[in-house]
Design a protein that fits this description.
The complex is a heterodimer of chains A (117) and B (115). Chain A has 117 residues and is mainly β. Helices cover 0% and strands 52% of the residues of chain A. The mean pLDDT of chain A is 90. Chain B contains no helices and 12 strands. In chain B, strands 2, 5, 6, 10, 11 and 12 form a 6-stranded mixed beta sheet that branches. In chain B, strands 3-9-8-7 form a 4-stranded antiparallel beta sheet, with no helix packed on it. Chain B has a two-stranded antiparallel sheet with strand order 1-4. In chain B, a hairpin with a 5-residue loop joins strand 7 and strand 8. About 4% of the residues of chain B have low confidence. The chains are: A mainly beta (117), B mainly beta (115). At the A-B interface, strand 5, strand 9 and strand 10 of A face strand 6 of B.
């Protein structure tokens, strides 16, 4: 199957700083990518849909000014957690839609664990 | 409302025993159904998916799942569990096509395997 890579896998930062997480589709172009947040022992919560060349669509309750999403190319979407606070500590996962397939199957990245001190 | 229910939060089985993880869904349109596995600190790996056709689908690692429309279920099964199967399992439902859709995930079932 297609490969989606996230970087970094782990990041620790001080409160108040900003952190950028990258999501790359390695062997296919993805016009649509999704960002999720996963709290400990819970399921994935969709944060936003990232569309190449246009603004992201955020789910209700997600602060768009805190979680900046940029999808500047067909293989890269970035999530920037601005002015991070300890409550932003979480596991962030991205997925990308492979439009080469009829069903537009989603492929998931390995996840990025953010710890804000 | 669209939703996915995984009734079992945590299941423990002995190695070599059979396994069934339950999944029920509520979805307005024709559902596309998925099972994913997540190891600690990792992303999600697709085990199998159902789009149409044969309601019994085979996946990787010896897993299979059966779609039962009348019961709105998509239970995951494995005849003989291995210790390496210990992980979190997520059932998901969605719609595909064009730019629409995303997946709705269940809350997951944690599988522990006893030696």
């Amino acid at each position: 199957g297609a490969v989606v890579s996230q970087h970094p896998s782990w990041v620790i930062c001080k409160s108040g700083t900003s952190v950028k997480i990258e999501c790359r589709s390695l062997d296919f172009q993805a016009t649509t990518m999704f960002w999720y947040r996963q709290f400990p022992k819970q399921s994935l919560m969709l944060m936003a849909t990232s569309n190449e060349g246009s603004k992201a669509t955020y789910e209700q309750g997600v602060e768009k000014d805190k979680f900046l999403i940029n999808h500047a190319s067909l293989t890269l979407s970035t999530l920037t957690v601005t002015s991070a606070h300890p409550e932003d500590s979480s596991f962030y996962i991205c997925s990308a839609r492979d439009t080469r397939t009829i069903t537009g199957e989603l492929f998931f990245g390995e996840g990025s664990r953010l710890t804000v001190l | 409302a669209q939703s996915v229910t995984q009734p079992d939060i945590h299941i423990t089985v002995s190695e070599g025993a059979s396994l069934e993880l339950r999944c029920n869904y509520s979805y307005g349109a024709t559902p596309y159904l998925f099972w994913y596995v997540q190891s600690p600190g990792q992303g999600l790996q697709l085990l199998l998916k159902y789009f149409s056709g044969d309601t019994l689908v085979q996946g990787i690692k010896g897993f299979e799942a059966e779609f039962k429309r009348s019961q709105s279920s998509f239970n995951l099964r494995k005849p003989s569990v291995h210790w390496s199967d210990a992980a979190e399992y997520f059932c998901a439902v969605g719609a595909y096509g064009g730019s629409q859709g995303n997946l709705i995930f269940g809350k997951g079932t944690k599988l522990s395997v006893k030696p």
